[in-house]
Request: fold
Amino acid sequence: MPTKEKNRCEWGQASELAIAYHDTEWGVPLHDDQKWFEFIVLDGAQAGLSWETILRKRARYREVFDNFDPSKVARYTQRKIDRLLADPGIVRNKLKVNSAVRNAKAFLKIQEECGAFDTYIWDFVDGNPIQSAWRTMGDVPATTPLSDTVSKDLKQRGFNFVGSTIVYAFLQSAGIVNDHVTACFRYKAIKALGKDFLESA
Reply:
């Protein structure tokens, strides 16, 4: 069991994988469309499962999903989908795998319309990360009005597996919302990135 040498969000202490993800990725403002698509696929795959399960499968997902290149995933044939469904290294759920392909196509349409998915998604918060101030993980909501709004818009654009809970998870992951608890050593570091980080990204 990893040692707790730093104050972390409770979930970020579960394993070495969780520690690495929590300490280096979770909550850092994201400006990379390919990573955005990765979070959409992985958070959709997580539905009904633990994030730890997804972290263990993440490397294999990157291999078999062409490193989450939406232009490639959007062209997956039924033969490719069948191979994915036979791969024990990912979540072999027919609805979730088909959703990744469908979402890739919708993702490309947003890129075409807005220039980048990143532009589209950050526009919901006018480019400024939301700085929460939760004392415990029990205080952190599963959904917010923001995730409700984004979820509704994504669904209208043809995405699925983008319910408000899933959407909130990837808004947290990608730093649109800073939901590290205030006692976590990453809270102030993420907060300090602020708008200056966004403008220099």
Observations:
- The mean pLDDT is 93.
